[in-house]
Here is the input.
Amino acid sequence: MTLAPARTSAHELIDFIDASPSPWHAVASAEARLRAQGYIRLEEGDRWQLAADGRYYIVRGGASLIAFVLGSQPLAETGFRIVGAHTDSPGLRLKPKAASGSDGLARLAVEVYGGPILATFTDRDLSLAGRIVVRTAAGSQTRLLRFEQPLVRLPNLAIHMNRDVNEQGLKLNKQTELPLILGQLGENDDAEAQLRKLLAEAVKAETADLLSWELAVYDVQKGCLWGANEEFIACRQLDNLASCHAALTALIATQQPAATCMTALFDHEEVGSESAAGAGGSFITDVLARIGAHAGLDEQDRQRAMSRSFFISADMAHAYHPNFPNAYESGHKVRVNGGPVIKTNANQRYTTNAETAARFIGFCEQAGVPYQQYAHRSDLGCGSTIGPMVAAQLGVASVDVGSPMWAMHSARESSGVQDHAHMIAALAAAFGS
Here is the structure.
């Protein structure tokens, strides 16, 4: 694949991520793309009336979304083709009562969400995004909020007071050294009032009507292409919005599939997925059950459908970093722009087995894209994905894959321009199988 069309996909990814500074914004971005392509929103509290070849989506919890296209062939004979990813990224979240004032400064208390590289959040142009619940005459209403300008900052301590920082690394106490500077306070100013005023103005509400909020800290710098030939992407939240974008793009491109095709985007993967909207909850099983009921499946046909289904857990993969060769398994040096990565772990941190790996290799070959295989060093702890829990819930064949990247969980990550286009092509082939 030449760089020109791949760059188009990369720029579309960067725009998607730029519009998605929080999981709630990511779902709103996904919803906008789906509606533009004729997808119809379904509500879980309604009775569903599904049309043949219909295209639908459902949102749960504001930050999880499942979209699907009904297949043209009987569900019991073809099963489902499902790609799963997650909308959340590791970082910092505001505490409910975050604002405090001392020494003439307003600061915001934060909680660490997941496993970010905390040092990368220092000296960056940070801001806030998320959702706020406000009181209205018609009842409470949830509104998305995003400050596009730099609003908060985590300044580093000067090296003069931290002489060992280059040898020992930057270590931040999560309770005392992470509060973010919001602004200066006058003699009679109140930090909480300052924060509430900012939030109220942003969502066009009165301060007294702000009921609650969930706000994430994000880096306002937009993503870009870099490298001698602009072959790399630098952006926040590549893990895992790149997989979300690839899965959505592949699904939207799928026309009149034989099997029912589905993209499932879950919140809370970075903190274990055990929530009503997470992959460990009932969201995907509930949706699959309702599609099966529409198709008139009895229990035996439901099990027949699941036996013919295939699940792809799409989450980013660790690319080989030549500055740190000892961090990698010598036989599994995954290269940026080397194609989708098939991830394997004997202890089932990933769901891949020989048969499912071979099946995904077939999708890559069909799409004309390269592929790679990854295993973690045996003396390092291996992360996991939504794959094992979804595969266990559904009882379906499953594979774990991802695009290679550097600096996973940094405030600004890097990946390959060609890899994103390759992943879209491979997932599109999977939906067409």
Remarks:
- Residues 279 and 390 are 6 Å apart (CA to CA).
- The domain at 3-89+236-431 is CATH 3.40.630.10 (Aminopeptidase).
- The mean pLDDT is 97.
- The two ends are 22 Å apart (CA to CA).
